[in-house]
Design a protein that fits this description.
The protein has eleven helices and eight strands. It is α/β, with parallel strands linked by helices. α1 runs parallel beside α11 and α7 crosses α8. It comes from Oryzomonas rubra.
């Protein structure tokens, strides 16, 4: 039985005060969601204070990115062990915005995933195709390349510290959402790919999230699909009420 995951990626939003206020509002709204793993990913500047605010709650803390070295002359970067030290249990890696704007590649994703796991973090590894790639019928080829590249060299036992998030780039922040069937098709492909790359047990245990304009009014349909194990939420995660409604999808 795969534990569902509802993760909120706050991106470049919220000061420290706004972030702590939001999680203080969120905690009582999701306290009863015992069968779901709930994660929030504030900006780096707010991680420490949000960690304090979340202490004792059922909400986990994630960072939005990391570097693959433990320390060194890498101005502006943050190491996985620093994230662990501040209270993070998860880290998002390879989000399409990192790939589009900051030169992230499958090779750098792979380095970051290995470093995150070595530091004791769970890596939420993002994959997804652009609209041009989908229209050119390249969706599965793109997803396979990203999954294989991002997870290359990992032993099967490390996969318990990996969550895959399928985010069609054309659905992120656009208001467009893949239909339940479209999302399920790609999620099933990813699970079958995991069986081919690793083993059936790893595939059966892998949690695969859908991301791309997830909202309270569409999450239930997505979550009825057999291979969709949760959501990576963008805009709707910025308000406690809407994110809680998504996290409480099972009610």
């Amino acid at each position: 039985m795969r534990t569902p995951v509802i993760a909120g990626n706050w991106k470049l939003f919220k000061t420290i005060g706004e972030a702590t206020g939001m999680v203080n509002d969120l905690k009582p709204l999701v306290a009863a969601a015992k069968g779901t793993e709930i994660v929030v990913a504030p900006p780096f500047t707010a991680l420490s204070r949000v960690a304090d605010a979340l202490a004792g709650s059922n909400v986990h803390l994630a960072a939005q990115d990391c570097y693959w070295e433990e320390e060194g002359a890498f101005t502006g970067e943050v190491a996985p062990k620093m994230l662990k030290d501040v209270g993070c249990s998860h880290v998002i890696i390879g989000h399409s915005e990192r790939r589009q704007y900051f030169g992230e590649t499958d090779a750098t994703v792979n380095k970051k995933v290995k470093a995150a796991i070595n530091a004791g973090l769970t890596a939420i590894v993002c994959v997804g195709e652009t609209l041009a790639e989908r229209e050119a019928n390249k969706t599965f080829a793109v997803i396979e390349s990203q999954v294989r590249g991002g997870l290359e060299g990992l032993p099967p036992e490390a996969l318990s510290k990996v969550i895959i998030a399928y985010e069609p780039v054309w659905a992120i922040g656009t208001g467009k959402t893949a239909s339940d069937a479209q999302a399920q098709e790609v999620h099933a492909f990813i699970r079958n790919l995991m069986a081919r790359c690793f083993d059936q047990g790893s595939a059966d245990g892998m949690r695969i999230l859908y991301g791309g304009s997830v909202k309270p009014d569409n999450v239930k349909g997505l979550m009825t699909q057999p291979d969709i194990d949760g959501a990576l939420v963008g805009g709707a995660s910025l308000k406690a009420e809407s994110f809680a409604a998504i996290a409480n999808f099972a009610e």
